[in-house]
């Protein structure tokens, strides 16, 4: 065959079509296997947590940020702040959907599902999702699961409530969603009316600090409220969440970030009385 020797244009077109073909098939494979793989949780893949800040121009905070989450909550470093007050929570039942975002399972409320109030500002409940194992650690201890409840103020400020779980009795909220989680897909799936009030906090004690989103773009200025009480979740429930997300995202916890400059406040209802 001397076809290529005699026709440089043919060689050129042939190479171009090879490139297009390989690009097309890898793109197709990617959307089939994992269409959310812009970032991963595995170092050494080029897209792991240490590289997040280099993947997209507006993800720079992931590596340059000074108040990145999650962090280790060290009891000896927190300051007790009675003036923080009890977390004002006013949730109500509303229509919701579940979706598999590839890197996590998210429940999103479509109607008015209520709000929390921090320093006089209302933050409306938007969605919640799970990380396994937990992202925040308590005095260096990592737990089995962490729920993030995302709220938004009218001006776009983000307030997240985090609840951590260790293996034990099933979590009532996940029990309600169990079968939907198992069959969740990329498309939103109707859950009907979901009452966020079913999410149990179990304690009035909480940590408060200003940090960031724990996934790209790692946006800073997020108001974190981490409930002190470690609740329980069954192994089966965590397994269902891990099996539902895409391959490679079974563990979807960002490592804890440098927290030297971050002030962590702690609220407890009473000094001597409060067992909750
Ligand atoms: Zn999260």
UniProtKB/TrEMBL annotation:
Regions that span the bilayer: none
Pfam families, sorted: Carb_anhydrase
Domain Alpha-carbonic anhydrase: 37-268
GO biological process assignments: one-carbon metabolic process
Chief location of this protein within or outside the cell: plastid
EC number: 4.2.1.1
Cellular compartments per GO CC: chloroplast stroma
Domain of life: Eukaryota
Record's subcellular location: Plastid, Chloroplast stroma
Needed co-factor(s): Zn(2+)
Top-tier EC class: lyase
Signal peptide stretch: 1-28
The reaction(s) this protein catalyses: hydrogencarbonate + H(+) = CO2 + H2O
PROSITE patterns for the chain: ALPHA_CA_2 (PS51144)
Keywords: Glycoprotein, Lyase, Metal-binding, Signal, Zinc
Keyword Zinc on entry: yes
The keyword Transferase appears for this protein: no
SUPFAM superfamilies: Carbonic anhydrase (SSF51069)
GO molecular function: carbonate dehydratase activity; zinc ion binding
Function: Reversible hydration of carbon dioxide.
Protein family according to the UniProt entry: Belongs to the alpha-class carbonic anhydrase family.
Official protein name in the record: carbonic anhydrase
């Amino acid at each position: 065959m001397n076809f290529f020797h005699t026709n440089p244009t043919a060689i050129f077109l042939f190479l171009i079509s090879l490139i297009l073909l390989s690009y097309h098939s890898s793109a197709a494979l990617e959307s089939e296997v994992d269409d959310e793989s812009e970032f991963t949780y595995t170092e050494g893949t080029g897209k792991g947590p240490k590289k997040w800040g280099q993947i997209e121009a507006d993800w720079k905070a992931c590596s340059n940020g000074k108040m990145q989450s999650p962090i280790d909550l060290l009891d000896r470093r927190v300051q007790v702040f009675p003036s923080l007050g009890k977390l004002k929570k006013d949730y109500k039942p509303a229509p919701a959907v579940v979706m598999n975002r590839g890197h996590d399972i998210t429940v999103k409320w479509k109607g008015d599902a209520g709000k929390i109030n921090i320093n006089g500002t209302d933050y409306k409940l938007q969605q919640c999702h799970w990380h396994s194992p937990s992202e925040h650690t308590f005095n260096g201890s990592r737990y089995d699961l962490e729920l993030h409840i995302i709220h938004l103020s009218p001006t776009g400020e983000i307030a997240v409530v985090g609840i951590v779980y260790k293996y034990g009795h099933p979590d009532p909220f996940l029990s309600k969603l169990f079968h939907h989680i198992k069959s969740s897909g990329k498309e939103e799936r109707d859950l009907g009316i979901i009452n966020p009030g079913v999410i149990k906090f179990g304690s009035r004690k909480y940590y408060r600090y200003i940090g960031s989103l724990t996934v790209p773009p790692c946006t800073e200025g997020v108001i974190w409220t981490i409930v002190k009480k470690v609740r329980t979740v069954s192994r089966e429930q965590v397994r269902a969440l891990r099996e539902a997300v895409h391959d490679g995202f079974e563990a979807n916890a960002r490592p804890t970030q440098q927290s030297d400059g971050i002030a962590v406040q702690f609220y407890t209802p009473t000094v001597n009385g409060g067992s909750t």
